[in-house]
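lol so apparently i was supposed to do this last week
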Amino acid sequence: MAKYDQILICPSCGARDLNLLDYASLLVLKPHVGLFTIQCPSCQAKVTSIQAIPQELDGTIDQAAQMLDAGMGRDLSR
Ligand SMILES: [Zn+2]
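anyway here it is w/ zinc ion bound
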């Protein structure tokens, strides 16, 4: 079940079912904020938007960052 704060509106066709969890790509800008690229399921437009990263994705992103050794998801205070 998608939550309201995970839904974007497509600027091209006005569809209201762009789910952040279905992102095509995600660039983490800072903790809990990312640049999401989502393909609209209605008109296939690529929608790019800076959004808070849903809690559901936190673990996934940390894992991906560690696998890529991208310098994200590390505890920098150590
Ligand atoms: Zn659309």
